[in-house]
Amino acid sequence: MLSTFIIALREGLEASLIVGILIAYLVKTDRRHHLRALWTGVAVAILASLAFGAFLSYTSTELSPRGEELFAGTTSFIAVAFVTWMVFWMKRTARGLRAELQTKAEVAITAGPLALALAAFFAVAREGLETSLFLYTNFKTVGAVSTATLGLILGLALAVGLGIGIYKSAIRIDLGKFFTYSGIALIIIAAGVLSYGIHEFQEFGLLPGTEAFVWDITSWMPKESFIAGLLAGMVGFDTTTSWLQLFAWLTYAGLTLSAYLKPAKTVKAPVSA
């Protein structure tokens, strides 16, 4: 539940801020008549994200057990790649995101309502499709669908509420710290998704070490237990964890967190004579 809540909150707030920036720009420049095109693009992006999530779930259920292992492992690796790219992209472009979106909106407005709808669509769809993919893989690691769904709903609801509050200047939060800490949490969750993908590939036979366990504690902590499900969703903990899973988890988390938390290089201004 907690992992899906964090994913939904982080991604949902990013999408809410993007929409809020675009709306504020149209209102500020007295172009309210373009809001319909903007909301059309946002609505289509949300529907596309939901359809993508439904496609992933449907495909997974229609496959054979062997095919489902391969599909789950492949989507896990793709999700980890996308999320890793996303957290570093946000860290790099967060300060200039407003100016970038306003520039794209200005160009789109000159081209017509359809161009503005497409600009809004691609801005929101990027977040939505990534969220659908990452949530699908995280749902597979958690196992408990009911609690994970509750976390998803609560996270999205809070993200929308925060987005509206920030837009209306009713809520003030340190977005820099929020995205930094939530980025750390996403990297830890992604490490767990990576571990799950390796497990699926081991079960399929593409990776070795299926029975080479670091620990096997299923005798006193069943996989279906609440604690095991909570740890699985948060950090990718498995009651039967192989050496390859543990090595991949530690390597990814260590290298990615060290690069993510590394201070940005500051460019020194030239000293005037």
From TrEMBL:
Subcellular localization(s) per the UniProt record: Membrane
Family membership: Belongs to the oxidase-dependent Fe transporter (OFeT) (TC 9.A.10.1) family.
GO CC annotation terms, alphabetical: high-affinity iron permease complex
Pfam families documented for this protein: FTR1
GO molecular function terms listed in the Swiss-Prot or TrEMBL record: ferrous iron transmembrane transporter activity
Name of this chain's protein: Unannotated protein
Membrane topology: Multi-pass membrane protein
Entry's transmembrane regions: 6-26, 38-58, 70-88, 108-125, 145-166, 178-198, 243-261
InterPro entries recorded: FTR1/Fip1/EfeU
